[in-house]
Design goal:
There is one protein chain. About 40% of the residues lie in helices and about 10% in strands. The protein has about 475 residues and is of the alpha/beta class. It has 2 domains: about 220 residues, D-Maltodextrin-Binding Protein, domain 2 (3-Layer(aba) Sandwich), CATH 3.40.190; about 210 residues, 3-Layer(aba) Sandwich (D-Maltodextrin-Binding Protein, domain 2), CATH 3.40.190.10. Strands 1, 2, 3, 4, 5, 6, 7, 8, 9 and 10 form a 10-stranded mixed β-sheet that branches. Helix 2 packs antiparallel against helix 15 and helix 9 crosses helix 10. It is globular, with a radius of gyration of 22 Å.
Length: about 475
């Protein structure tokens, strides 16, 4: 990646923040599944700490054992194991216990209740623990000491100054404290095989009418236009939310985030719903898609059964085993509905920091956990991450010299082209159940052809209104 691309990405998120699109989350939806009692002073951390020095700014006990649990999803865990090896070289007396799982909450919730959590957790995936609940109960450590520590690459700079704009804010919940370090930088969009498009003489569609034409041509060739993770239909929101913003402007997304009355019946949402319904009504969705999980839908797509799939930049690594060598994975924004009336341009996308790493307040070796994160934020570690998993990281300029895989290179170019037109919906952070189960689930029903647009909009609004009336949860708002 060249320097111009990296500068653009910094500038994109900086300007997005000033536009109010990249708001710092306050307390989000509190899960009904409680973790346990409060964790005490979440800024103090656990035991096993030495006096801070210039060479050891976090006060790491270099002989203390460290336990790490990583989500074993699209990124795998090799990148984390490699960083742990670097940590052990710097702390030769420390044993590191590593485990990987997709069942983060089922496995770790009992340990939080017992007051015996691991030291560092990659809290990601469908079974992740609810961040707002953990924060509200004092279960997570404030990572400000890590952010203010000197970078291992350049001790004259603080860690926070090496991160892409928006990374620190994405881990904040109500105020200035940061409780999560979102390690990856994800771009969402409509993924496709450039080879498949070229072989059929198709150019990626810039308007929805052009999208429908390609889908019609694909259908005649025995191909589906779209597939998606039918069993996890919130994947549809990866392109649906920026489509709403494209049609109605950033204020359309802010209204949804803030659960404003009627926000899910506004014209931009209605137009986006009707456009997506056309895919189902005209038979352009791969048969059987509602029963497919994310892996199965991605496999159908890489095997050429469908032309397009809404996804995030982790897909290149997650689908690596089934992707043909000449596939030439690429990603593009959702097509414009009507360039003449849309409030934002074709290039508008959703992109943000993700893959949250957290340090439990009651962990035995909080200093070691933060030091491992500091190690993970070195250029060596993040370049290793990008090579292994085809994802950008949260560190600015770290992949400038890295030969990126096709999908990641395409995603970087898409982000560069977006300029200031990057939206970051906060609904998935503030109201995870509403986003995943209700908005995502309703979109899945629409795309399966089981409901029509009017019913879809009614369900959207009903679920949003019910969430807005729920006095048991916090209701954060975008700043004016």
């Amino acid at each position: 990646m060249d320097a111009a691309t990296e500068y653009s990405r910094r500038d994109v998120l900086g300007r997005a923040a000033t536009m109010g699109l990249l708001a710092a989350p306050a307390a989000a939806l509190l899960s009904a599944c409680a973790i346990g009692g409060a964790g005490g002073d979440s800024s103090a951390g656990g035991a096993r700490r030495e006096p801070a020095t210039k060479d050891n700014p976090l006060g790491v006990d270099r002989s203390a054992p460290l336990e790490v649990v990583v989500f074993d999803g699209g990124f795998g865990d090799t990148y984390a194991r490699n960083a742990e090896a670097r940590y052990r070289r710097a702390n030769p007396g420390a044993a590191v216990k590593h485990s990987a799982t997709q069942a983060i909450q089922p496995q770790l919730q009992p340990r939080f209740v017992a007051g015996d959590p691991p030291d560092l957790i990659d809290n990601s995936g469908a079974a992740q623990m609810d961040m707002a609940t953990l924060v509200a109960q004092g279960q997570l450590l404030d990572l400000t000491p890590l952010l203010d520590a000197p970078s291992l690459d350049d001790p004259s700079r603080k860690v926070r100054d090496t991160l892409l704009a928006g990374t620190v804010e994405k881990g904040q919940f109500g105020g200035a404290r940061t409780y999560a370090l979102n390690y990856a930088f994800t771009v969402f969009g409509v993924y496709h095989s450039q080879k498949l498009l070229d072989d059929n003489g198709w150019t990626y569609p810039r308007t929805w009418d052009e999208m429908l034409k390609i889908c019609a041509q694909a259908k005649k060739k025995g191909l589906a236009g779209w597939t998606y993770a039918g069993r996890h239909p919130n994947y549809l929101t990866f392109t649906f939310y920026p489509f709403v913003a494209k049609i109605g402007g950033p204020e359309a997304i802010r209204a949804m985030d803030d659960l404003e009355p009627g926000a899910f019946r506004q014209d931009a949402v209605k137009a986006a719903v009707e456009a997506y319904y056309e895919l189902a009504a005209k038979g352009y969705v791969l048969k059987g898609t509602p029963g497919l999980d994310h892996i199965q839908s991605q496999t159908a797509w890489t095997q050429g059964q469908a032309v397009f799939i809404p996804d995030g930049s982790w897909v290149e690594n997650e689908a690596r085993a089934t992707t043909p060598a000449d596939f030439r994975m690429a990603v593009a924004p959702n097509p414009a509905l009507d360039p003449a009336s849309d409030r934002m341009p074709f290039e508008t996308i959703w992109a943000e920091a993700g893959e949250p790493f957290v340090v439990p307040a009651k962990a035995r070796n909080t200093a070691g956990a933060m030091e491992l994160l500091r190690t993970m934020l070195t250029r060596e570690s993040v370049q290793d991450f990008s090579r292994l998993v085809s994802s950008l990281s949260c560190v600015r300029g770290a992949t400038d010299a890295v030969d990126l895989a096709p999908g990641l290179k395409s995603g970087s170019a898409m982000l560069n082209a977006a300029g200031p037109n990057v939206v970051v919906p906060m609904l998935p952070v503030w109201y995870s159940t509403l986003n995943k189960e209700q908005i995502g689930g309703t979109l899945g029903e629409l795309m399966a052809g089981r409901i029509k647009p009017d019913e879809c909009l009614s369900r959207f609004q009903s679920c949003a209104d019910r969430t807005a009336r729920d006095s048991s949860i916090e209701h954060p708002k975008h700043s004016a």
